[in-house]
Amino acid sequence: MKKVFALLLCLTLTVTMLSGCGGSSTSSSEDSDVIKIGVFEPLTGANAAGGELEVEGIELANQLRPEVLGKKVELVVADNKSDKAEATTAAARLIEKDGVVALLGSWGSSLSIAAGDVVKSNEVPAVGVSCTNPQVTLGNDYYFRVCFLDPFQGVVMANYAYKNLEAKKVAIIQEVSNDYSVGLAKFFSDSFIELTGDENAIVETGNYNTGDQDFNGILTNIKAANPDVIFAPGNYTESALIIKQARALGITAPIIGGDTWETNEFITVGGADVEGAVMSTFFDDTNPLTEEGVTFVSEYKNAYPERENVAAVSALGYDAYNLLLDAIERAGSADPQAIRDALAETVDFQGATGAITIDENGDATKTEAIIKVVKDGKFTYLDSVSVE
Amino acid sequence: MNTQKMTFSSFIKTHWKTIVFLGLLLIGIALANEFADSYLRRILNLCAIYTIVSLGMNLVNGFTGQFSLGQAGFMAIGAYTVAIFTVPVEMRASVFYLEPMAPFLANIELPFIGALILGGIFSALVAFLIGYPCLRLRGDYLAIATLGFSEIIRIIFTNTQTITNGALGIKGIPTISNLWWTYGIALLVIIATILLVNSSYGRAFKSIREDEIAAEAMGIGLFKTKMTSFMIGAFFTGIAGGLFAALLGTVDPKQFYFTLTYNFLLIIVLGGMGSISGTIISSFIVTIGLEWLRFLDEPMAFGLDLPIFRPGFRMVIFSLLLMIIVLFYRKGLMGTNELTWDFIRKKIRSIQSRLGRKTSIDGGEKK
User: How far, in Å, CA of A274 to CA of A244, rounded?
Assistant: First the structure.
């Protein structure tokens, strides 16, 4: 029995080793007529859901536009396990072993920041999909992105609260262990204080940790402060619970948040209580801003008929791929340095999520964000806000 | 004079294989450093760092028999010390863009090696603080307390915005890309652990592992000995954490979830609790193995388009291989043995004799 198992173990090891070697040798021999683009996304671990949606968008774009410069584009997808150390090895592997000319990804700013150093030292360009933290592209000439940044989104929501909701006093509930939430809350409050000209416009700030279930302590304080609006950027599950518990406590102030809310779980957890919750997002599938957006939505619905709505990150993944291919076309070669230079010069690229112009930091300058509201258990287009 | 010469030549005589092996190893590292691509170098660096952490953990868990699960926390301390003190002063304003860094820290910049050692010392000091109440506990309580500690450290780092930049993490740490830092320190740690384990302290550690009451009766100060082991383990782990931060170039609290500790627990259990060479071997197996199985994530792994080969599949296979190893090597790959020349000779001989016996049996059957 033991010997049989030992033999089996040896057999699996040799088979896997052989196939491992075989895979790498075939991939290196046929790179003359293929351009390889690496995709590193969290496909397992805590952020797997987000990574999966982005890959869907990227793969859809690849199906629609499989060739550039007369060569076939091959996507090499690597899983970064939602882990920083894995993100760096995955990026290094794609560059060194698979010989990709550029990278796409990742969901989650910290994973992108970790891979940034690999990208920079190997001088291979990368296009971030939904990494909204300013630090991703800061001081890194090889990292670009198609999404807007946390500061922008904070400003958008502050404007919305001040102008549309006519709020004078705001309370903030932030997920203190989430860089996204902390950054957004900070930019929101800075902008809101500037708009109102009132130093004390933020009447209360509550902190919670990822995974918390009970928010009654924070909410009781907020109820006492009686704000006009509550800004609660953060993870969708916790946010939905916050809204539920706030309504149970009798808080009637509108509750607004960021793009992370736009998931089906937000509505299933929150139920009827999240009706009227307002959030900013990148993309609206019922009312695309551009021609490209219309094409994307119809193709996406063909490819994934079972999905109720089109996730914004899928649209961003689609844009990231097309932006990169556009740059390769303009560069006229698949040389990473040439692609980088072409990416940096992108002006008025028509993507599914709007027109993209890359600024000197490598960020997409976007002036328009979509505001959505939960209505009848669905995310519905409410408004689009543009900010200079 | 004469006797010294004698001992020197006899030292060479008994240890020539080890010296040759070390020489070859150094040449190997130099070659890898010169010719390996950045992907391979990164994995080799990770192997060395995991070796250091696992050795620190094995010292406490394997040799002293105290079940500690605080590795992620100690790594976080080392990593953050390196991050805070080595990010160039002029870059700090852009890293701490939400709230500026605390003024008493903002202008202190240390050389990498200084920050690394400081990280180790901080880890050891924190280990002293936790160990002071906890090492008086027996059994599972130390495990619970250290597990709690590593979560507390993470939450403290999340909330001290002006020191650690909170959830945003710190980026822009000057990175190390050659192998000498990690392998040099790993070698030092390995040598230090070997010397320690074979000294009177090491024997005291093992005696506590085997039987606390008997050890105490023999005159070993339980608390002091456990504390020594715990603090040295934490020191090594802190150093490794610092190297980890410098390898990645960025740190944030989410890296140091308690699940990180289980990586190292896996490594020491797989290698053998109480075996230095086992720990080194399994650090390499676990780190390289996971990377090497990556081809299983690709849809065309065996030239066939099978639906099971999708991202995450390598984890399934990896767990299966681990299960098989644990089933058949219940004490880990090495048990409490060390990979010495004697051990190898014995193994080869036993394999030879087994093969010899088998052929003779086969021969008998044929007749």
Answer: 7
A108 and A168 within one domain? no
Confidence band (pLDDT; 50, 70, 90) for A104? very high
CA B225 – CA B257 distance, rounded (Å): 29
Query: What is the amino acid identity at position A104?
Result: L
Residues A270 and A192 in one domain: yes
Among A residues 154-173, those touching chain B with beta carbons less than 8 Å apart = none
Would you say residue A129 lies in a domain?
yes
Check A113 against B171: CB less than 8 A apart.
Answer: yes
- How does pLDDT run across B105-162, given as a tens digit for each residue? 888 899 999 999 999 999 999 999 999 988 887 777 888 889 999 999 999 999 888 8
Domain residue limits, chain B: 36-256
pLDDT tens profile A10-49: 555 555 544 444 444 334 434 568 899 999 998 887 778 8
Question: Hey, is the C-beta of B296 within 8 angstroms of any chain A C-beta?
Answer: yes
A9 touches chain B (CB under 8 A): yes
Element (H, E) at A143: strand A143-145
Read off the amino acid at residue A224: A
Put simply, the answer to whether A113 touches B298 (Cβ < 8 Å) is no
Of B41, B46, B250, B298, which to mutate for an interface test with A (greatest number of A Cβ within 10 Å)?
Answer: B250
Q: Is B302 on the interface with A (CB under 8 A)?
A: yes
pLDDT digit string, tens, across residues B24-77: 888 888 888 888 888 888 899 999 999 999 999 999 999 999 989 999 999 999
Within 8 A of B40 by CB-CB distance, chain A residues are: 96
- Write down the mean pLDDT value for chain B: 86
Same domain, A144 and A157: no
Q: pTM for the whole thing?
A: 0.85
d(CA B255, CA B158): 11
Q: Which of A102-111, A240-249, B70-79, B146-155 has the lowest mean pLDDT?
A: A102-111
Domain-located, residue A13: no
Mean pLDDT, residues B267-282 = 90
- Could you give the number of structural domains in chain A? 2
* Amino acid identity, position A191: S
ipTM for the predicted complex comes to: 0.80
Nearest to B293 among A16, A43, A89 (CB): A16
Report the chain B residue with the minimal C-alpha distance to residue A41.
Answer: B311
Residue A194 belongs to some domain of the structure: yes
Tell me whether residue B7 is exposed, middle or buried, using C-beta atoms within 10 angstroms of its C-beta: 0 to 12, 13 to 18, 19 or more. Answer: exposed
Query: Residue A195 maps to which CATH number?
Result: 3.40.50.2300
Backbone angles phi, psi at A170, to 5 degrees: -130, 145
C-beta atoms of B328 and A79 within 8 A: no
CB contact (8 A) between residue B328 and residue A5: yes
Parent domain of A76: 31-148+293-367
- Residues A275 and A337 placed together within one structural domain of the fold: no
Q: Are residues A231 and A345 in the same domain?
A: no
Give the residue from A227, A253, A281 where a domain finishes.
A281
Of the candidates B97, B254, B317, which has its C-beta nearest A110's C-beta? Answer: B254
Asked if the Cβ–Cβ distance from B98 to A176 is below 8 Å, we say no
Which token pair is A166? 């006519």
Q: Are residues A161 and A274 in the same domain?
A: yes
Query: CA-based angle B335:B339:B340, to the nearest 5?
Result: 135
Tell me if B38 and A97 make a contact (CB, 8 A cut-off): no
- A304 and A221 within one domain: no
Q: First-to-last CA distance in chain B?
A: 66
Are A135 and A155 within one domain? no
| DSSP secondary structure letter of residue B89 | G
Q: Which of A223, A254, A281 is the last residue of a domain?
A: A281
Contact A84 B311 (CB under 8 A): no
Hey, are the CB atoms on B168 and A133 less than 8 Å from each other? Answer: yes
Confidence (pLDDT) at A153: 87
